[in-house]
């Protein structure tokens, strides 16, 4: 029976309906289940083959149905079936994203899984099956509001519950069942299916009848509630650490469940001699979030299989590798010893043994006793997770060249001095299957018509497009495609936001999590400056521009929420100014997520990547824009540096202080001087306190003003150097605005960016992990 017939059969037998009468949910269920039957024969592991395991607290996989159909080669058949039945395949856009991640780190994990499967690399993901993913965002009078993300509201047809592979995870005063839900990770039309295993916590005893009979109703369901709490919700922090008990429990929960599984699988195949363990499994730690896996594996080997600590340590070190994703000091995880003792006391002795082993090693290496402290795994009554990860693994990597250099020279400098050979770089990448083939069919077809479709699994092929950059017809088509993607986005925004935007404007887009270091506020200041410049007649011949923002702020991040409100106020002011009607527009779209990114990115002309130099580890949104033919407006930070290395600085807009300059001015930096001496800056900044905008008495705007000019107890004034870069940013933007007048010349820059995006495929990245770290 073919795929279409299967869909019809499932609709009939399981839903008692027909395609025409079925609800979207029923169609989704039938299509997904039919696809699952289709891939079943390929969903197996090869015995005796080493597997890599990607441990991550986040997998931001987005909407699965279109990507899975494409990778299975069923998209066309499904579309034909739907057309025949008079159904629009777009109805699946109602289905929620699987938003089991915050931002870059979680999305990277999803791209890696897609790339590994598409290249027959045996890589499985292990994480947490959150009941609620990243909150949904709405705006109430310009303020961010949050609601729960019930991502399973259309069911979860892509997961298989594996009751018989459940394990028990023990906390000091609680035991829970960890139930695996396995999702297929489908390679691109190659018959390879890997696994994403997400763990769900459930009570060992669901209901306490004795308590119930004693009229203690709360107690009767307490165990169930306590278990379900563990994976109830994803922590909505991005690049910010919160030392909460529940977060530690989440980390241990999925780490322990995963380590038990690996040990169980190993012993089933090889018995209790663990000498080949590291030849069977490589474990990559996605930041420090799963690092408790290291002492947990050692504990299991010592306690259940009676290995010595030394034997267990050597196995662990050969097995684990660690990826760092941030240099933000506030994101480095440190757990209070008291909390570890309170939650997982059984693990603590193994952390102490790691600490002591390191101390002995430091002594033999003649490290003086006062420098020893900066290495200590247990220091200031806290367990320093990054130190544990570097020490007890064989590989530590950064995620872009500059980031790895900063790790070696600053953040982890002392570790680099001890173990230089452990440090390596793996510049991030993105999957061109989702970020081009799926989200930009028009551009994909255009490329394929010129160079064939090998680029889908070998993005270096894109280089061959370079020969068409001077081809008049090709460039015209390329420009028409951009216009078409802009029109499509306008239609969507009209329907979803209720706002009309002009598809003939320049589309200038900044989409990423809201964080001070990413400097959405600098973008806002510059827009205001442009607005005043146009009104005052200082700026003439301005090419109309729409400034688009998309970002979620962590609900507890007051300043980030203030920035959102401020941008919404600017948008409102400009929207009601008749003089601006055909000049500029600002829109902050609500609930920015993976599916929204798939619509925004193909429509962009300008990609805003304006973090303070030395703060953004890599960035991956920058790569998605480049691939879809936008120019980067950016600082020399993260992967921007490698992007302009590939596409040419002259085809992008690089501005602002670089790492060296920031370091040089840091100690004497005085933003108030800049403010006092630059009337444009003063005018813009004063809108935060002079009543131009209303923050409804929240005090948010004044707080932003003081953060820049006076600082706070935890930061110096203008910690992210907005005022230092302000003029250079405005100049770069004006340059781009002028350049755009020559549409052909501008399109050429976009084209060259697209043609040189090959390096930024996650296929390249994952092959480097495979070859240089795992196999
Ligand atoms: C930690 C403890 C408690 C609660 C939350 C957290 C937490 C959660 C998420 C800490 C950090 C994160 C996420 C970090 C992140 O997304 N980093 C980004 O990683 C991308 C992929 O490598 C890079 O491209 C980005 O530059 C980097 O910011």
Account of the 3D structure:
- Strands 1, 4, 7, 8, 9, 10, 11, 12, 16 and 17 form a 10-stranded mixed β-sheet that branches. A 6-stranded parallel β-sheet has the order 20-19-18-21-22-23, with helices on both faces. Strands 13-15-14 form a 3-stranded antiparallel β-sheet.
- With 775 residues, it is α/β, with parallel strands linked by helices.
- 49% of the residues are buried.
- It is globular, with a radius of gyration of 27 Å.
- The protein is built from 33 helices and 23 strands.
- The longest helix has 26 residues, at 245-270.
- Helix content is 47%, strand content 14%.
- A hairpin with a 2-residue loop joins strand 14 and strand 15.
- It binds ligand 26Q.
The fraction of residues assigned to DSSP E strands is 5-15%
Rg value: 27 Å
Q: Give the distinct bound molecules.
A: ligand 26Q
What class, by secondary structure content?
A: alpha/beta
Instruction: Supply the number of helical segments.
Output: 33
Q: Can you give the helix content as a percent range?
A: 40-55%
Poorly predicted spans:
none
The largest sheet, given as strand count, sense and whether it forms a barrel, is: 10 strands, mixed
Distance between the ends: 39 Å
Mean pLDDT: 98
Gross geometry:
globular
Care to count the β-strands? 23
